[in-house]
């Protein structure tokens, strides 16, 4: 279970709740909005290796040097995993290739978007470049959940292909309790949550410990 958090307080809350991965993300900044670097550093220091910490680099244009620099900068703050969004339809190959030197010694996850014509044919390249994993998410958080855009067979194809390439796999995108039985049968490495863990199921509101505990109990 991956839980996305936007503050030190939220990070400590989900740490105490026993989630598997703490994901640092600014929900006000888009699908993969990046948190302020000072805040990331503070959270990493507070967690102090007691849990895996991942972070996003932001909803950035697919410019290889920009993506490389943002990824390198985030890794320098001490997070365990960096998630890179493959936005749009161009320059994905160039960006993935540019990240190969960083992927050699760090855990990088390529994020594809179910509501933006994801190119699953990139998965072999993701693996070849040394990435740690690949995941599916949604870019437009007001445009429906993951299963509104890809059916269970398409998701299974993604999971099976990526797993066969020895990539870690993740599924996210406005998923909640009603999706858990179906998605857990696919055996992804993790499921990612934000909105389902928040008050009123609104991803920009505060986390609700009752919801966190409920979903965690359903997954364990």
Low-confidence spans: pLDDT under 50, at least 5 residues?
Answer: none
CATH architecture: Alpha-Beta Barrel
Q: Give the N-terminus to C-terminus distance in angstroms.
A: 9 Å
Portion of residues in beta strands equals 15-25%
What is the CATH fold-level name?
TIM Barrel
Derived structural class: alpha/beta
Total separate domains: 1
Q: Measured on Cα atoms, how large is the radius of gyration?
A: 16 Å
| Percentage of residues assigned to helices | 25-40%
CATH class descriptor: Alpha Beta
Number of helices: 10
Walk me through the structure.
The chain is an alpha/beta fold and 220 residues long. The protein has a single domain, classed as Copper homeostasis (CutC) domain (TIM Barrel, Alpha-Beta Barrel). Helix content is 39%, strand content 17%. The chain is built from 10 helices and 8 strands. Strands 1-2-3-4-5-6-7-8 form an 8-stranded parallel β-barrel, surrounded by 4 helices. Helix 3 crosses helix 4. The model has no long low-confidence stretch (mean pLDDT 97).
């Amino acid at each position: 279970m991956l839980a996305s958090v936007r503050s030190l307080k939220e990070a400590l809350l989900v740490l105490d709740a026993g989630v598997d991965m703490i994901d640092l993300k600014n929900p006000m900044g888009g699908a993969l909005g990046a948190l302020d670097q000072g805040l990331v550093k503070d959270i990493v220091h507070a967690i102090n290796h007691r849990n895996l910490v991942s972070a996003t680099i932001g909803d950035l244009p697919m410019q290889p040097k920009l993506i490389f620099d943002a990824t390198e900068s985030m890794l320098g703050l001490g997070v365990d995993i960096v998630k890179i969004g493959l936005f749009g339809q161009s320059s994905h190959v160039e960006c993935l290739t540019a990240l190969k030197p960083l992927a050699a010694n760090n855990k990088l996850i390529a994020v594809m978007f179910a509501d933006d014509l994801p190119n699953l044919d990139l998965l072999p390249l993701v693996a070849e470049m040394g990435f740690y994993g690949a995941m599916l998410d949604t870019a437009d958080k007001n445009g429906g959940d993951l299963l509104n855009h890809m059916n269970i067979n398409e998701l299974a194809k993604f999971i099976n292909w990526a797993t066969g390439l020895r990539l870690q796999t993740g599924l996210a995108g406005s998923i909640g309790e009603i999706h858990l039985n179906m998605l857990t049968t696919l055996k992804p490495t993790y499921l990612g949550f934000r909105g389902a863990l928040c008050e009123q199921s609104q991803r920009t509101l505060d986390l609700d410990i009752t919801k966190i505990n409920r979903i965690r109990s359903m997954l364990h």
